[in-house]
Amino acid sequence: MCSITLEWTEAGQLVTQTIQGKQASKNPGTVRIGRDRTRCDLVVSHPTVSGLHVELFFNDQTNMFYLRNLRDSNPPLVDGKILNQGEAVLNSGTYIYLGQVEVKVVSVFLGTSGVPPTVLLPPPANVAQYPSATGPTEYGLKCPKCLHISPYSQLDIGCPWCGTSLAAAVSVVLPPSGSRR
Questions:
Q1: DSSP one-letter string for 7-22
Q2: What pLDDT is recorded for position 181?
Q3: d(Cα 35, Cα 156) in Å, to the nearest integer?
Q4: pLDDT at 115
Q5: Which residues pair with 179 in a beta bridge?
Q6: What's the chain's Rg over C-alpha atoms?
Q7: What is the DSSP letter of 177?
């Protein structure tokens, strides 16, 4: 049986989740990760994580786990590289950034009945695991009603333009400070 184990910190607590290759989910064939409990199988509640952020799936043809981006405005980083479109292979030791949340792939087990499982090892230590030195990434929340972008600290207060709750807002990556209008 194939499985992948993820680990991240949620509200100061370490969370570990193991996903089976053919695990039942809200979207058959994939496990969706994000902030929205109604659409996601794994919920990460940090406000920089989009409501529906990424999906993880197992490909029988290649016998590998993959991650697919579901948000154009808030793409994940996989081992320091932005995943705008397509898929990224997940191995033990891969780091995924969903907004400001670091998710580590702790282990990947690939195997079939009668055959010992294959364990994918983490990448060599000299591979960069963090975002590039272009400076810290800033995030905002796009109001679902008026589409203005607020700092994520507004989550509990609501949109300062129209008053709409930002609980269902889309998390977006803001352009660097020097290029904002």
A1: EEEETTEEEEEEEETT
A2: 42
A3: 15
A4: 45
A5: none
A6: 17
A7: G
